[in-house]
Amino acid sequence: MAGFDKRVNSYEEAMAGIESGMTVVAGGFGLCGIPENLIAEIKRLGAKDLTVISNNCGVDGFGLGILLEDKQIRRIYASYVGENAMFEQQMLNDEIEVILTPQGTLAEKMRAGGAGIPAFYTATGYGTPIGDGKEVREFNGRHYILEEAFHADFAIVKGWKADRYGNVIYRDTAQNFNPLAATCGKITVVEVEEIVEPGELKPDQIHTPGIYVDRIIQGSFEKRIEKRTVREG
Amino acid sequence: MAGFDKRVNSYEEAMAGIESGMTVVAGGFGLCGIPENLIAEIKRLGAKDLTVISNNCGVDGFGLGILLEDKQIRRIYASYVGENAMFEQQMLNDEIEVILTPQGTLAEKMRAGGAGIPAFYTATGYGTPIGDGKEVREFNGRHYILEEAFHADFAIVKGWKADRYGNVIYRDTAQNFNPLAATCGKITVVEVEEIVEPGELKPDQIHTPGIYVDRIIQGSFEKRIEKRTVREG
Amino acid sequence: MALTREQMAMRVARELEDGFYVNLGIGIPTLVANYVPEGIDVMLQSENGLLGMGRFPTEAEVDADMINAGKQTVTARPGAAIFDSAESFAMIRGGHVDLTVLGAFEVDQNGNIASWMVPGKLIKGMGGAMDLVAGAENIICTMTHASKHGESKLLESCNLPLTGAGCINRVLTDLAYLEIHDGAFHLKERAPGVSVEEIVEKTAGKLVVPDHVPEMTFE
Amino acid sequence: MALTREQMAMRVARELEDGFYVNLGIGIPTLVANYVPEGIDVMLQSENGLLGMGRFPTEAEVDADMINAGKQTVTARPGAAIFDSAESFAMIRGGHVDLTVLGAFEVDQNGNIASWMVPGKLIKGMGGAMDLVAGAENIICTMTHASKHGESKLLESCNLPLTGAGCINRVLTDLAYLEIHDGAFHLKERAPGVSVEEIVEKTAGKLVVPDHVPEMTFE
To answer: In terms of pTM, does the model score above 0.90?
Structure first.
């Protein structure tokens, strides 16, 4: 069964092969469902000049934000990057290139990359600066722009449970971009809270089939909350 | 709660509004996971000149095959139609138009229709008769053809369990095209084996969120098997 | 008197219909959820992947894995569905959301909206706003009618970079409720005590004013 | 002697590697599953939405909701995943399947394949074949080398309508194992007792023959 046993024993092994200049796609929305230990390992390994594809860029000191400290990110595709003072500074200094991408387009570009769809049309961004320089085409009297797929060298993903074959399920809204990121990496690394035996996950309830996954590691997570909002109990 | 209670009490009500000349997209693969009672109701109601989008066209006397008996289908988009003598006859007589569509392209065209993607590029069919007359474009040195989305007046879908809000889960490989068909109908009708209370289906395990679904009905199913293949127990 | 934020939310809430799937943006739109009329049930879509957003959690219910698009901790109501971001925007882009409510810096008489960037200021991103305005058939913009300096935000043509082109058909400002079609704003209602003259003065875009403009009422 | 169907399946099975995700077409390709070498584990993908196809069910296990792409009743092995058709073809189209084995009417020296229609005969459809050949990096065609009348099926250029263009790189016939690249068939192995001359004679396309062509062996 060695062939499908995708477990690795250390974060070092999980991120082995990451190099400066690579493209990394990451799951997560804000700080929810982010592969926090895989990000920390990228920081530890010190790869620079990275292109990152992620909806957000973490906060100062947590999530992808920690990769800013040593200026590891050269370019980022994201829909919203405004939670982070260091980020703003690097953007203003032109040390980081930001390609703002509408959230739905970002998700669809990840899916397209994984699904062998090189490009698709969307109405999102037509007539806005996002559409500048992109092909416009009319279908049934409406205007759409052409958007191309994302491909990454590494996909880093946070799951809830996985089996050793790499079948993954996500928990609640920590799902977000994770299953999409998982499909479009040459090497897809998933960290999870629990590794279970093959057969424990119901086949028709698996979110990410193991075919997309190269490495699985079990970790422990801080799961920082960005905006704790409560009602009176 | 009336606003989200999508249950209807009869198959007549479930298919109310179907008219001659309409387009119907149907879930199912072969005879697996087909909306067999909804199909029977279309036969009973007698709508003609239908355009059908479905991977297959049933068999003589079961599934979509029964709509051939009264020549209700004028045109079908399908990937494989070869299980049916009446179908062959009508095809040879030019009574039915068949637009053969590769299986993956068929699935993706349904998804695109539901997702507001008017068209996408795929390598499938490039250089074949399927690509004839379609735009060809090169991305990263490879050729792709442009395929447009499907839209239907009715989507008919077979689920396993649903709540009254129209959240649906499918069972095993009876899933197939069903969740995709569910997204691209103006009116989406889902028949299921069991209707459960809202909250009984785990939110992150729902296959078809209720937003896609207009009508839900509980039925009983023959579930005919096309090729019963067994091993010695 | 100009409407308060709460009154704006109350007025928007009257546009809700039983069985609507609704996406509420950040700010005033979020408040709309507090004023859903009696006897009407709506299902809130949060674009990070939640259909059927519930109340904020109690201290004991707080769960880092359950947030809304504003990154606030939330709960799911019974019968909610949770899905990935591509599915979430498939719903939005595919036109399955019945009503979207969002804020704007400017709208114009052709239904263009600018809401995401002011050149020269730091750009934080459009999040899901461009997808929402391109996907929904039915959008209400909530905004102040004019800036603090009295400059109209209802324009002939937006000055700021657009979020979407030709996609807005209803606007609720602190002064008025208007529809946009045929290249003009159409004044439908005015805030209590606000004169038609004031609205005319503060609307830079083409404005069609009917003979009678009813005043909104709030209990 | 030409290979039997079983021997063809056995030979193809030697191309399997531990940890491969494999899609097997109908016919001879299906038989490959019976000859997976000792110590090697492969996961079978069935394009109707099953990754990790198991054995046929016992009479008691038969379930109408659990079939393969050939519409046969099957089981799922532990650790299988089941998904919708768009996801299934995302895997296929996205190049995630390690090996695809399928039959063909004709292949040519440029890697074109014709496998789905013969003009004048009734056309039943391509099913998933066009997606499979366009998506996989790694495809083995299994076919007879020539028709019953001795006409080669390994051509300079396919006569029949294509299933895919330039996508086939390996062919196993009943006579030989060949690779396709640089506009030619490259003879790699021959069936036991089959002469190079016979293969040359029955190959209409450009054929590159090395000095030594090893004979396949079967236990």
So the answer is: yes
